Amino acid sequence: MIKVENVHKSFGEEKILEGISTVFEKGKTNLIIGQSGSGKTVLLKCLLGLFEPEEGLIYYEDKAIQNMNEEEHRTLREEIGMLFQGGALFDSMTIEENVMFPLRMFSKQKKNEMLERVNEVLARVNLENVNKKYPAEISGGMQKRVSIARAIVNNPKYLFCDEPNSGLDPNTATVIDNLIQEITHEYDITTVVVSHDMNSVMEIGESIVLLKNGKLVWKGTNDDIFKTDNKDVTNFVYSSNLFKKIRDIQLKEG
Amino acid sequence: MKYIKDIGSYVLMLKKVFSSFTKGSVLKELIFKEIDDLILGSLGIVAFISFFVGGVIAIQTALNLDNPLIPKSLIGFATRQSIVLEFAPTFISIIMAGKVGSFITSSIGSMRVTEQIDALEVMGINSLNYLVFPKIIALLFYPFVIAIAMFLGILGGWIAGVYGGFTSSPEFITGLQDSFTPFHLTYAFIKTFVFAFILATVPSWQGYFMKGGALEVGKASTNSFVWTSVLIILSNYIVTQLLLS
């Protein structure tokens, strides 16, 4: 569980986050949604400790990240898996080396044990026979899956995903979404996904927060999102013509 | 004001490079990889340039010796002094600022653009130690490159002088041995170490703190070459003033 309490963040004069408070629950895929520039990625980077909020606290279980000592910070980092927007795979390493990287850095396992674990997680994300390839030699969807494999290889307690579907076709995007949700339930971890993709909201939005201009304006589930009267939610949801048409059809059909 | 801020961020970067060390076994591999990329990968171009520039120095010295009272051994003497004191340590370092410096800036800059540095940080790895420290250690071998440049430069001078008919081999060798001051070699290698440190850290700083996309990586590489060269020339002046005057 991750608890965010009254977080404020600015860059110079510009206020990016204003008093964000919410809870990201364990065993659920928690989505942070909102339009571009709403502060989603900044909130994610605050959660990861890459940005320090000017005000407010972020709790991992019952310990605020701001109050952790260096050792606690290091331990927390080892418990975090991250899926970056572009995959962020290391170009100079093979797929196998990329996935093995967190194990090499933090575990004391022998090489054959590490290889076994790498093959296990690569199989979990449905990737085979790519071990010796380089990231540039595989497709964008495969890179995302390798990135998920790297994020989970160390059995993390928290998984963060920044726009996991960007640049992917709808089918591959759904595969990635489902994979994230399956892994969340399977490993019983706290997953936080930043997205502005309505398909992701529908597929995996077990707990959703909507940000607008740096403020949290709505919280609910993917079932609630079509029932709410919140204007910010309806503006966000029906900014897509497809969803507008679906709503019109539903209204016609009563 | 911006320059003061940049110097501050460079110093803070150096402090962080030497803290929170990466796991030893991983670091060892990274150092070997950097030695391969930065040192061994540069030997070809350094050898080529040194050999031919040595030859040109010998020919130009020979062509400027009009007075019959000046001994031909001066060709060997001038070649040695030019190569050992300036060409090998300083000008090879400027060439390396272009080759190695641009490579370091663009590789670290690309990692910044594609969030690979963020990935390291999220994993709890000190990215500066992981990326920059192995380069500093690898460039401790840079004096070997300069030693090879000195040898090949003088060899090029000897071949051009002797086989070009400008001097004889004994005269050239006499010139090489004439008024030899061993401290000049010490001076050359001391400044080589200074240049090696600049070559490892300034391009790393340029790449690590760059912002933007692919275009900015290119700009950072150009800036890296300019600033590394400027610092090499400046430190060359300071070291020379301190050690030789």
Write the layout of secondary structure elements.
The complex is a heterodimer of chains A (254) and B (245).
Chain A: E1 2-11, E2 14-24, E3 29-34, H1 40-48, E4 55-60, E5 63-64, H2 70-78, E6 80-83, H3 95-106, H4 111-124, H5 140-152, E7 158-162, H6 170-187, E8 190-195, H7 198-204, E9 207-212, E10 215-220, H8 231-237, H9 241-252
Parallel strand pairs in A: 3-8, 3-9, 6-7, 7-8
Antiparallel strand pairs in A: 1-2, 1-4, 4-5, 9-10
Chain B: H1 2-17, H2 24-39, H3 43-63, H4 73-113, H5 116-122, H6 127-138, H7 142-163, H8 169-177, H9 182-208, H10 214-244
How does this model look, in words?
The complex is a heterodimer of chains A (254) and B (245). Chain A is an alpha/beta fold and 254 residues long. Chain A has a domain at 2-79 and 156-252: P-loop containing nucleotide triphosphate hydrolases (Rossmann fold). Chain A has nine helices and ten strands. In chain A, strands 6-7-8-3-9-10 form a six-stranded mixed sheet, sandwiched between helices. A four-stranded antiparallel sheet of chain A has the order 2-1-4-5, covered by helices on one side. In chain A, α3 (95-106) packs parallel to α5 (140-152), α4 (111-124) packs across α5 (140-152) and α6 runs parallel beside α7 (198-204). The longest helix of chain A is centred in the C-terminal third of the chain and has 18 residues, at 170-187. Chain A is globular and about 60 Å long. Chain A starts with a strand and ends with a helix. Chain B has one domain (23-244). In chain B, α1 (2-17) packs across α6 (127-138) and α4 runs parallel beside α9. The model of chain B has no long low-confidence stretch (mean pLDDT 95). With 245 residues, chain B is mainly alpha-helical. Chain B is elongated. Classes of the chains: A alpha/beta (254), B mainly alpha (245). Chain A binds chain B through residues 48, 50, 73-74, 76-78, 80, 82, 84-86, 88-91, 101-102, 104-106, 160, and chain B through 22-23, 25-26, 110-111, 114-116, 118-119, 121-125.
